[in-house]
């Protein structure tokens, strides 16, 4: 008698091997190692180099990997977009969103919440003022950490070894505003000050006409787990006015969110 898959408890074999190979390669990219070369991927996943090359080329063509000038590959924005629904369900996002909505309503300005991933910041919450002229940033978007207030803030709380591991010359290569730092050496003193002061400003470093001020969000153990900022147009807000009027508001919001997450400080 023939026993069906259903009656025997067995599951039909629906595995697509090519897709499985692509997912195995994508799973290699982590915060600890955000970029890979094809020659390193092959032994890591146990696949022949020609196979890895074909899969990586396909992932790049479909927008899931970016090919960097130095030959490395890193996850592209399309990978991050896949996690949008998951990001919105995170405890951090759930805890932070109501307080950030209050901050946006009180100021009428754009509010963002982001975390560090490699040398970029990943946006988890974005409450946008329609008057703000920026790129099409949304939940799941990433920007170079070295050119953003949240990014600089989060970099400032890394150890020296972590900072050196994440930030390279290529971290500064993206398009940026007129006041952007162009090397880690140039940025180091500012990072030290940010860590001591517990806030960061971006003054037309990401784009012309854009300023922002960020504060840290702490987790239960006292580590910085995210950052939030207020982004404004420079024509409306001088740096001095931002520090005087907006910095206390974003710092208070981040403190409230930290307490919701279990921070005891």
Q: Secondary-structure map with pairings?
A:
Layout: H1 5-8, H2 17-26, H3 38-45, H4 49-61, E1 65-67, E2 73-75, H5 77-82, H6 84-88, H7 91-107, E3 110-117, E4 120-127, E5 142-144, H8 149-156, H9 160-166, H10 184-197, E6 200-203, E7 210-218, E8 224-233, H11 239-260
Antiparallel strand pairs: 1-2, 3-4, 3-8, 4-5, 6-7, 7-8
Helix pairs in contact: 2-4, 3-4, 7-11, 8-10
Largest sheet: 6 strands, antiparallel
Give helix and strand order, one letter per element, not per position. Answer: HHHHEEHHHEEEHHHEEEH
Spatial gap, N to C terminus = 69 Å
- Return the average pLDDT rounded to an integer: 86
Supply the number of helical segments: 11
Sheet-strand content, in percent, reads: 15-25%
The H-level CATH homologous superfamily of the largest domain, spelled out, is: GAF domain
Q: What share of residues is helical? A: 40-55%
Return the CATH architecture of the largest domain. Answer: 2-Layer Sandwich
Total number of strands: 8
Low-confidence segments: 1-12
**Computed Rg:** 21 Å
CATH names the topology of the largest domain as Beta-Lactamase
| Strand order of the biggest β-sheet | 5-4-3-8-7-6
CATH top-level class of the largest domain: Alpha Beta
Q: Which shape, going by the Cα principal axes?
A: globular
- Integer tally of domains: 2
Assign the structural class, choosing from mainly alpha, mainly beta, alpha/beta, alpha+beta, or little secondary structure: alpha+beta
């Amino acid at each position: 008698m023939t026993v069906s898959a259903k009656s025997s408890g067995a599951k039909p074999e629906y595995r697509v091997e090519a897709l499985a190979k692509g997912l195995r390669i994508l799973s290699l990219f982590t915060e600890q190692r955000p970029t890979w070369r094809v020659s390193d991927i092959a032994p890591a996943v146990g696949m022949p180099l020609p196979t890895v090359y074909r899969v990586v080329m396909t992932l790049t063509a479909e927008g899931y990997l970016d090919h960097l000038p130095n030959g490395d590959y890193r996850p592209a924005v399309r990978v991050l977009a896949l996690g949008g629904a998951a990001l919105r369900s995170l405890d951090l996002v759930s805890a932070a969103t109501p307080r950030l909505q209050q901050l946006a309503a009180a100021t009428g300005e754009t509010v963002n919440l982001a975390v560090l991933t490699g040398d970029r910041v990943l946006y988890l919450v974005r409450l946008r003022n329609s008057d703000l002229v920026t790129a099409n940033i949304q939940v799941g978007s990433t920007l170079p950490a070295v050119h953003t207030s949240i990014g600089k803030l989060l970099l400032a709380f890394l150890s020296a070894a972590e900072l050196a591991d994440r930030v390279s010359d290529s971290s500064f290569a993206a398009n940026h505003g007129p006041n952007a730092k162009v090397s880690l050496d140039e940025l180091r003193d500012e990072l030290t000050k940010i860590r001591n002061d517990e806030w960061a400003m971006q003054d037309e470093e990401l784009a012309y006409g854009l300023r922002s001020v960020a504060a840290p969000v702490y987790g239960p153990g006292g580590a910085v787990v995210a950052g939030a900022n207020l982004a404004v147009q420079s024509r409306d807000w001088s740096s001095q006015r931002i520090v005087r009027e907006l910095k206390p508001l974003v710092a208070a919001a981040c403190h409230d969110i930290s307490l919701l997450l279990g921070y005891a400080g």
